[in-house]
Amino acid sequence: xxxxxxxxxxIVFTGPDGSGRKTIADSVGSTLGISKVLSYATxxxxxxxxxxQDYHFITPQLYEQLHAGGxxxxxxxxxxxxxxxxxxxxxxxxxxxxxIYLILNPEGAEILKRMYGDHVIxxxxxxxxxxxxxxxxDEGLSEEVIADHLSHYESDMSYQSQCEHAYENYDLAxxxxxxxxxLEGYLKRDLVERD
Length: 195
Hints:
Order of helices and strands: EHEEEHEEHEHEHHHEH
Number of domains: 1
Number of strands: 9
Strand content: 15-25%
Oligomer: single chain
Distance between the termini: 41 Å
Strand order of the largest sheet: 2-7-1-8-9
CATH architecture: 3-Layer(aba) Sandwich
Helix content: 40-55%
Radius of gyration: 17 Å
Structural class: alpha/beta
Number of helices: 8
CATH superfamily: P-loop containing nucleotide triphosphate hydrolases
């Protein structure tokens, strides 16, 4: 596990699938110059996803090998697919930047919060069930995948109250603006005003 310094932060974008958390996270990260750390996933890429940009897509065999070697600081199984975050990737990202961001499901977000405490800022991104379903259809996801995502929509939504901040995402530009303003407060919290 990486030892974090006083001002190092892990920003976690979480919430239900289809809430827009990835689009928002990447826009905010780019706007604020925050490094993204990718998780590893054993599932196949969804329409529009790119290996090395959205996830590191790997075989279940390689995942098990990395897991057995103790390389993951966070590992979860969702719908028979495994997702994990490598300790080494987090450590390397902190060498370049004092703040990193991740896109994790609520289970992964909770694991990191327990590990790193106040260094983790969880941003819960959500939309109503119907909007989430429509967005996933528009992305070209199969009805089977959408039904699977919606099967844990309520449990994902129940995590909202545990997060530091929550944002309803219906107006993308507005949501990105609000989150960027919130994070500026964290990123500049060590600044002291002088006359």
